Amino acid sequence: MEKNRFFDRLAEGKLTRRELNRSLAAMGLGMATTFSFSRPASAAAGSDLKSYTWAGYDIPDIMQDYVKKYGSPPTFTLFGGTEEAFQKLQSGFTTDIAHPCVEDIARWSKLKMIKELDTAKLKHWNDIWPELLALPGANMDGKRYILPFDWGNGSLLYRTDKVEPQEMSWNLAWDERYKGKISMYNATPTVSVAGLALGINPYEFSEEEGRKIKDYLMKQRSLVRFYWDAPSDYQQAMASGEILIAYAWNDGLAAMKKQGIPVEYMTPKEGILSWTCGLVHMANATVPDEQVYDLLDAMSSPESGKYLIEQYGYGHCNKKSFEISDQKIVADLGFASPSAVFQHSVFETEVSPEMEQRRNKIFEDVKAG
């Protein structure tokens, strides 16, 4: 994305978190953001706390109770991906709070980068979805290092007025009836889709299984009209009828329904791709624990979740968030029954550098033909 166009879209509010993350990483940008608010003279400054987080999460709306108490949000530094964050932290960068994903926790905790959480100090702990707390990484042999915060899905979105799936399966993306009417994500989740369609673990597979995945993606390549980088690419094409099937996130479902386009967001029989990220207390944090836990409480509150659901289209850790959010938006995002979504989810798991390299090579080879 051209730099000027990037900032134009950022200013217009037309970038999703992932578009922003992807663009920041590609441009090699690091951001530190501070806000100015009035605060009680006796209170610690909110900006004393340093938060290392995803682009788009540097806003007071998702931590309102913290801002009310301390007068300002934390000082933010932004990253475009958790591997980038890990490498920067390993090189000596210090922060009080970070926002990795559950699949990162085994490595981060093994290297003693993060502190175990005292869940008794977390105001909303008992309202967190138990399915998220049971995930590998969220539960490390009974120890808790991460407070799950946000979550979401990746699946197939299709036009119900023009597509007739033979079954609810990822294999719809290989249906030759829709040749030239399919769009897939221009990234390795497309490799995950092929793995699931073939019954192969997409995060840990042998060389032979890798060849099967590659062959299946090569078969799909002739059916795909384009691989999308920004969600707006497939959304515009689906609205016009140029494509009928696309890999999409939850916000794509909401965007299409808002335009009155008849669509369905599939729950594939092989499992829907899901992710969850959260908040960790860094081992070298310098602010008092009370201030850290105040931020954790603010971000895990129902009000924070309401904003995340309604404005970003992501799921939130707190069950009560879904009760107080606009129910039409909740339904349009596919979140009417989060427990049912979790039951059919294949969550991202820790992937070795070698496996990630293999996944990347498969996808690049497929695109190259």
From TrEMBL:
GO terms for molecular function: polyamine binding. It holds the Pfam family SBP_bac_8. GO terms for cellular component: periplasmic space. The keyword Secreted does not apply. GO terms for biological process: polyamine transport. Keywords: Periplasm, Signal, Transport. InterPro entries: SBP, Sperm_putr-bd, TAT_signal. Signal peptide: none annotated. It is found in: Periplasm. Its main location: periplasm. It comes from the Bacteria. This is Spermidine/putrescine ABC transporter. It comes from Hypericibacter adhaerens.
